[in-house]
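User: Hey, my collaborator sent me this sequence without any context and asked if I could get a structure. I don't really work with proteins. Can you help?
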Amino acid sequence: MDLVQQFAHYNSSLSHLLNNYTTQLTYGQIYTQIQQQVGENAFISNLTKIEKLWASWYIYMNNDVLATGLLFFITHEVMYFGRCLPWFIIDRIPYFNKWKLQPTKIPTDEEQWECFKSVIKQHFIVEAIPIWLFHPLCQTLNISVEVPFPNWKTQLVQVAIFFFFEDLWHYTFHRLFHVGWFYKNIHKIHHRYSAPFGLAAEYAHPAEVAALGVGTVGFPILYAWLGTKYSQIPPIHLFTITVWIVLRLFQAVDSHSGYDFPWSLNKFFPLWAGAEHHDEHHHYFIGNYASSFRYWDSWFSTECGTLAKLRREKNIKQKAENGFKKNN
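Assistant: No problem. I've predicted the 3D structure and written it out in structure-token form, which is a compact way to encode the shape of the chain:
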């Protein structure tokens, strides 16, 4: 398929802009051809650089199923291990120990290596296979892959919705995984490290990876399905889902980092859980089940740690005093 046909297949608004080519162009050459039309065509001129790079990728791949599958897998690997790398380096610099939540438990190179081997195996076995089913799902649910992307306000609201509901999903299943059989046979693997580190974010039993992964991918799918039923719901773009997954990856890695800095997000946004919240979960092996926010554990009285215990005791005492006053 020549480039014009590829443009027509991907986005009819671009199809007339390029000449026919008899040889296969590289990804970079396709992007260059699109870029050369800036100033000559209003549609292309209004595209952002990211939108042009996105379009070039789908045109270059010439197979939407393969393009979406590889996009998801490569993005996941690059972003996950790329976000783990700074924490790996920080663990090797004694200066940062002052912000380490459990400073006497720095992961060794052997622990990091064993964790890496387990995680990369999970990525290829548990996560890579379902990825290839995602593009047919996009077609069924009208999840767009075309350019331009939705406006940033729409994307921001959608990502916020996913963060809220995914955290409830994570809280529910994480709490379930601490019950009897589920902990012994599934979740205990993740608690191998009582002092977590970035790479351990996805160190878990395949069943746990799959169950919690449903929350990450499932809510965008549910949102898209609702969009097919109710026209008032703004459509969702695959780019938005990709951004959401990247942000969720960053959150997972950071919450397992084991560091709480003065500039950490939870210092400016108190509802944010952060590494301190999850580090206590690994330290005490119970409580603090939510991943992104603190309010689920607060509402359901499952916070852990010394301060959380004092707050619960204070609330119990206050309720008892209020009950005594009411009875008298």
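In plain terms: The chain has two domains: 3-61, 64-314. You can pass these tokens on to your collaborator as they are.
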